[in-house]
Amino acid sequence: MKVVVLAATGQVGRTVLSELISRGHEVTAVARNPDKLPRSIHSVRDDLSSADRIAEIIAGADAVVSAFGPPKDDARFFSDVSYTDQLAHVTERAIAAVRKASVARLIMAGGCGSLWFSPGVTVLDSGHWPEKLIPIATSHIKAFAALRASDISWTYFSPPMRIDPGVRTGKFRLGGDDLLVDEQGKSWVSFEDYAVALVDELEQPAHERARFTVGY
């Protein structure tokens, strides 16, 4: 399968890239600074600012994975929705590019805030979401809405409340719109298992034009 990974140098992008390559997929990594990637990986330098340019890059691909997130090294990430909203804007451009290039599928590495924490209460509104992460959660909700309003084949993949570097176990649970919590009350997954679940979905689609989530 030919897969293009947008924003391939972030934590999610790098881990998904590694999982795709380990399974023998033909991958193109798109990054603002592809020098951070191994030279053995086919890469393209781009900042995702143009839908037309993204369409050129993804032409001929079977699927696109968007792992874009606003850089966290900018203090505005934790305080300014107008800064984190670049996530929603990139998503809108990715949607337009997928449509223009007639790519069969877009999978977005999404956010947790819009999952249901309890009946009628989202994670974002539950009181358990960190205040400093409210801007990015708000922008993810806008990106999710843009996907749902689109006419392309999309999948939005929400992580649990915590996602950390860890171990690839291949053992996890999948869910739909409800937050997954383990027996100890933790909602978490490793980046490595998140990538396994995402590539599983690419290979065996089960959530087209839908959202799903993962957790232990």
From TrEMBL:
**Superkingdom as given in the UniProt entry:** Bacteria
Q: Which GO terms describe its molecular function?
A: oxidoreductase activity, acting on the CH-NH group of donors, NAD or NADP as acceptor
Gene3D superfamilies assigned to the protein according to its UniProt record, in alphabetical order: NAD(P)-binding Rossmann-like Domain (3.40.50.720)
Q: Which positions fall inside the NAD(P)-binding domain? A: 8-205
By its UniProt entry, which SUPFAM superfamilies does this protein fall under? NAD(P)-binding Rossmann-fold domains
* UniProt-listed Pfam families: NAD_binding_10 (PF13460)
InterPro entries (UniProt xref): NAD(P)-bd_dom (IPR016040), NAD(P)-bd_dom_sf (IPR036291), Polyketide_Oxido-like (IPR051606)
Which PANTHER family has this protein been placed in? Answer: FLAVIN REDUCTASE (NADPH) (PTHR43355)
Q: What is the name listed in the Swiss-Prot or TrEMBL entry for this protein?
A: NAD-dependent epimerase/dehydratase family protein
Q: Which organism is it from?
A: Paraburkholderia guartelaensis
